[in-house]
Amino acid sequence: MTRQLFLIATLITGLMIPLPSLAMEDAEAVNISGRQRMLTQRMMKNYLLIGAGIQADKAQRQLDEAVALFEEQLLELRDYSPSDTISRQLDTVEALWLPHRLRIISEPSKTGTSTLMKDNLTLLKACDDVVKAIEKYSGIDSARLVNLSGRQRMLSQKIAKIYVARAWKVRADGLNEEYEQAIALFDDSLSELESYPSNTRDLHEALQRVRNQWDFSRTGFKLEDSGRYVPTVISVTTDSILAKMDEITGQYQRLMQNQTASR
Description:
By secondary structure, the protein is mainly α. 80% of the residues lie in helices and 0% in strands. The protein has nine helices and no strands. It is globular and about 55 Å long. The protein starts with a helix and ends with a helix. About 4% of the residues have low confidence.
């Protein structure tokens, strides 16, 4: 059995295991739908790492895990969906995901990679539409913080994805512009989160750790100017940022849940 068929069989088998049904709250839904955005970029990044032969075994494990988690969370969001609008947007995500899934788990090839990356951005946009719709549906101001901090997770992987693509000499339209926009958006969003007046001491400290890691990562970005690439370093540091931002997003999720309970 090929790896692709094995992974699909594993996903299908996993769906047959009965699990306790717990109602998902809006705050959790913003977090999980935001994580879907991140997973699109994480999958693409690891596809490129495998193709470039950079820590390929580790990248393969991360790719398989991301595919399985995306599938699982899509089902969870479908069970949660509180409106026809959100359900239709999830239909769009699923329609894009099914063919993309088969391509993203195939053996990487530089031929056709630019098309795959373009389709990957289309999937990302569809996932982002779901997050925004859930944020709006919740009617809670702090939902923006869950969305914003969760988007930082995605940007960490998007930046790493583009960096690896450039290191592998992948030709794709708009790659440089996408790269610069992602870096600027991460920086601006981090500043916005840092300035939020109701941040707890724990959040201040956690955001400062992200800031320190981010500043270090940016020194690696600048090495490109001299033609030197350090994709392993960038992958490790952006994964560290991802882990830190995931914890911060969880803290903002709890803040949103508290505000929801007090309404």
